[in-house]
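step=encode ok
step=design start
structure_in=
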């Protein structure tokens, strides 16, 4: 009898109801604990670990008009007070918009653009820089429309959004690099916390009517950081970046397998 392949964290080898999967990509808790979406979450989990849980989050795809509107409202809230313009999200086959929820309230969003013949958003300002990478055989994605509600004090929301974008970009679409346009005032944060590197001079971005610089993240670097620190949370003493608040490498592999299976 052939061996039955085992899946990480006890995932059952069965498909879920399509509407149920459409609702949630992953559920996680702060402090860090990944919840298996393939088990009955109504079962009794009362123990010392669950008693410390303060917040629970879910991340979903903004694959309906209502979800895109909800994400756009958060983006507008976060961008407008800085005086930035923020066009609403639209359906695009080359974009993946992730939305984080807490108790059905949108608390974070990020849009990942996958390179295609139509190009990327960053091509509007930094096409020469992007084409230089393409000429080297690099496969690109860009990160746009990033917003996290300041009332949410969990680093895991930002970590989850970025890590899921890497899972989609690197593990599923085989990207090698992420590009992001960022206000120069915030560039140092992304360099220190995630490992982005400067890749383009400061320019005025007409989309948000604000200055921007281009940063690049080599996804091989992020993979190394996940292997070292992913899932450690606050126990990662002395680590200054945000990778301890990403999922563990084992969890990443399990999430990737489920997405590839289309469960």
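sequence_out=
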């Amino acid at each position: 009898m052939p061996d039955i392949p085992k899946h990480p964290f006890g995932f059952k080898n069965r498909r879920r109801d399509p509407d149920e999967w459409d609702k949630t990509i992953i559920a996680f808790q702060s402090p860090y604990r990944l919840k298996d979406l393939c088990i009955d979450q109504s079962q009794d989990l009362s123990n010392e670990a669950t008693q410390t849980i303060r917040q629970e989050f879910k991340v979903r795809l903004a694959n309906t008009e209502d979800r895109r509107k909800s994400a756009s409202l958060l983006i507008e809230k976060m961008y407008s007070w800085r005086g930035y313009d923020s066009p609403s999200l639209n359906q695009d086959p080359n974009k993946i918009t992730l939305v984080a929820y807490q108790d059905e309230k949108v608390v974070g969003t990020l849009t990942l653009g996958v390179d295609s013949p139509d190009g990327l958003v960053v091509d509007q300002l930094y096409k020469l820089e992007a084409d230089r990478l393409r000429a080297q055989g690099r496969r690109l994605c860009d990160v746009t429309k990033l917003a996290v509600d300041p009332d949410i004090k969990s680093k895991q929301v930002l970590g989850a959004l970025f890590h899921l974008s890497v899972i989609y970009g690197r593990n599923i679409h085989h990207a090698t690099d992420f590009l992001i346009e960022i206000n120069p005032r915030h560039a140092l944060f992304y360099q220190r916390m995630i490992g982005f590197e400067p890749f383009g001079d400061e320019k005025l971005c007409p989309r948000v009517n604000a200055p921007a610089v281009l940063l690049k993240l080599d996804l091989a670097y992020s993979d190394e950081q996940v292997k070292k620190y992913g899932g450690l949370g606050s126990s990662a003493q002395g680590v200054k970046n945000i990778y301890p608040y990403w999922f563990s490498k084992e969890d990443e592999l399990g999430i990737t397998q489920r997405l590839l299976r289309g469960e």
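step=design ok
step=annotate ok -> The longest helix spans residues 155-172.
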